[in-house]
Design goal:
Layout (H helix, E strand, L loop, with lengths): L1 H20 L3 H5 L2 H34 L5 H7 L8 H11 L14 H13 L1 H12 L3 H9 L4 H30 L2 H5 L5 H8 L4 H22 L24 H29 L19 H31 L3 H13 L4 H14 L11 H25 L3 H9 L4 H30 L2 H6 L7 H11 L2 H34 L1
Helix pairs in contact: 1-12, 1-15, 1-16, 3-4, 3-6, 3-7, 3-9, 3-11, 4-22, 5-6, 5-13, 7-9, 7-17, 7-19, 8-9, 9-12, 9-17, 11-12, 12-15, 13-22, 14-15, 14-17, 14-19, 15-17, 16-17, 17-19, 18-19, 19-22, 21-22
Length: 510
């Protein structure tokens, strides 16, 4: 209950403000100026969710179950596009295509097509990481039995493996839907008018409309979360068989391998090339101290450390906070736990600006110790956790539901207490899923901008805020070098905390 109230605070604030300001939810949403952007937002969010479910599942299966070329390198690199901020990815796309771009023969995509491409190639890791974690606990003995009974590779994948992966893919697809619904940077740069534009454009001159639309997003997200709660998977049965053989692609190995490498080229290599070009080309306009090769990068040390500390703290706190709720929703599901899950998930659909404004309002309005939290590091971490806690929750639910119930029952029969059963039976089995959820929170926190700008202590700078400030001032050499540092930091943290343990466990099974 306490967790639900904590995560419900942004929506409760929006409701209170809407009532206080006299906002009429139906009247505001029913206007043509809102209905059209809302329809475009839903179309884009649904399209990106379906695209990411297909793409993320395909890539996870390729690197986990086949002998695709560069499998170990792909497993790490394919998670990295998620750390590229949407507004930076859109900027890279605009700079790389069309007249004057790095590849001028490629038309510059704008509108729905441009937004779909950018948000899909930057968001598929939400699905990829969850499905990859799910594959670790999916028994290969089922696939081997199907092949022994005469089923070919394609039939085995479609009838045996994919049904077991659908819940994890659906959980990731929900996160993509909510993320795209709340995005502003990419759609604004690519000239695709969505509901977030209406919220941002009215936040100062028409506070009633802005707050009412924010409340509508929260209600919409709760409805989507309620519809998607059936995505929690059933227990899969036995653990994966040790030493199971991977699918050998044979003559199809090269053409199939081109698929993940092409996706990586568009989602990661392309932006890196643009950033490197800006950094190497340099600029006569100097912002924080970088004009080209040879300049010192000392100005990036502090924001790099700040980004790493904030992201790691938020990831750990988010997993610890939502894990009891995940256990309750999977093991003892009831109306209350389902309602709290819907509330936690709904916050992810709110723009980060609205979540941050809620915390600012509470901190400034409540006297005493709570009021002293304004512009402190704990309040910043709380903002990250509220905004991205749904990522850790969905991953934790998927991991817990994959643990065979009979293991817990056997431990109970042997006299183990609930605490001991969780620490010795459940926790080791769900650790990969928890790590995947923590990784999602970590990567999202590294690129978060509005919450950092509003909640950070005075003088606290992250790499994301450095990138945004440099881009605003036109210092593209600094945008390039800072973006490269952000990607390098994200790669290091994701490798150490998420992917390296998974690869080690995978090698032990093989």
């Amino acid at each position: 209950m306490a967790t639900g109230l904590l995560f419900a605070s942004p929506a409760l604030f929006l409701l209170w403000e809407s009532v206080r300001l006299g906002g009429d939810l139906v009247a505001v949403v029913a206007t043509p100026d809102v209905l059209a952007p809302l329809a475009r937002s839903l179309l884009l969010a649904a399209s990106c969710a379906l695209g990411c479910m297909a793409l993320g599942t395909l890539l996870a299966v390729l690197v986990s179950r086949t002998d695709v070329l560069g499998r170990d390198a792909l497993r790490v690199a394919l998670a990295m596009p998620i750390v590229v901020p949407s507004f930076v990815g859109a900027t890279a796309l605009i700079a790389a295509t069309g007249r004057g771009g790095l590849v001028p023969f490629v038309p510059r995509p704008e509108g729905f097509v441009g937004a779909f491409v950018v948000l899909t190639v930057l968001s598929y890791p939400y699905v990829y990481l969850l499905v990859l974690a799910r594959l670790r606990s999916t028994p290969r003995s089922h696939e081997e039995a199907a092949r022994l009974l005469g089923a070919g590779t394609w039939r085995t994948l479609t009838t045996v493996l994919l049904p077991q992966l659908r819940p994890a893919a659906s959980a990731g697809g929900l996160l993509v839907f909510l993320y795209v619904l709340s995005d502003f940077g990419a759609v604004a740069l690519l000239r695709y008018d969505t509901i977030t534009r209406a919220i941002y454009s009215t936040r100062l001159l028409d506070r009633t409309t802005s707050v009412t639309l924010g409340l509508f997003l929260a209600v919409l997200a709760v409805g989507v979360a309620a519809l998607a709660r059936s995505a929690t998977p059933a227990p899969p049965g036995p653990r994966p068989a040790a030493g199971a053989q991977r699918i050998r692609l044979g003559r199809w190995r090269l053409p199939v391998s081109l698929v993940p490498w092409a996706v990586l080229g568009v989602g990661l290599v392309g932006p890196v090339v643009v950033f490197a070009t800006w950094a190497l080309r340099g600029s006569t306009a100097v912002g924080f101290g970088y004009s080209g090769p040879g300049d010192s990068l000392a100005f990036l040390v502090e924001p790099t450390v700040s980004s790493a500390v904030a992201a790691l703290t938020a990831a750990v706190v988010a997993v610890v906070l939502v894990l009891p709720l995940a256990v309750a929703s999977v093991r003892r599901s009831g109306p209350l736990s389902r309602a709290v899950v819907a509330v936690v998930t709904s916050v992810f659909a709110l723009p980060g600006l609205l979540v941050a404004l809620t915390l600012v309002f509470v901190a400034l309005s409540v006297p005493g110790p709570l009021g002293a939290l304004y512009q402190t590091f704990p309040l910043l971490v709380l903002g990250y956790v509220l905004h991205f806690g749904a990522q850790a929750l969905r991953s934790s639910q998927t991991a817990l539901a994959a643990v065979p119930v009979r293991l817990d029952e056997a431990a109970r029969t042997l006299g183990a207490s609930p605490r001991r059963r969780f620490l010795t039976v459940d926790l080791p089995l769900v650790a990969p899923g928890l790590a995947a959820g923590a990784g999602l929170v970590l990567l999202s926190t590294l690129k978060e901008l509005p919450a950092t700008a509003l909640l950070a202590p005075p003088g606290f700078q992250t790499l994301a805020t450095r990138i945004f400030n440099a881009a605003q001032d036109g210092f593209f050499a600094e945008v390039g070098v800072t973006s490269l540092v952000l990607l390098a930091l994200s790669t290091l943290l994701t490798w150490v905390l998420v992917l390296r343990p998974e690869l080690a466990a995978d090698r032990r099974r093989s």
